[in-house]
Amino acid sequence: MSNVVSYEAGRWSALGDHVFQAGSRKGSGKVFLSERLQSTGAEVSLNRLEAGQGYPFLHRHETHEEIYIVVSGTGDFLVDGQQIPLREGSTLRVAPNGARSIRASMGEPLCFLCIQAVDGTLKQRTVADGRLVEGPVEWK
Q1: Domain with residues 50-120, CATH architecture
Q2: Highest mean pLDDT range out of 13-22, 27-36, 83-92?
Q3: How many CB atoms lie within 10 A of CB 69?
């Protein structure tokens, strides 16, 4: 088995071409990566909400915390009734039980990553899990 699996999702501007289905809901602008990358510890999605678009529902999780990272655009995040403004570089973590939704501002699309992992399972922070490998780095 290979130590790497790659997938090319394309440009953020073309993310709207991707269609996804979650239960009875069908939409565009979201690519779930765990299956495509054969991930065993986290779900990651690439997301693009067009200007003025947002999720018309609140949701929460049973076991997954979510980390949102805004790549471009502006918008708002709603969690447990608290509205948080978003812009490029905004990051936030939502505990599983937080009732949440997100929307893009009227003026521009909002592109973001959403990372899901089982709450409370992180064993080490920063680079503590990394190990240096002997030998030179040889690029072709």
Answers
A1: Sandwich (2.60)
A2: 83-92
A3: 14
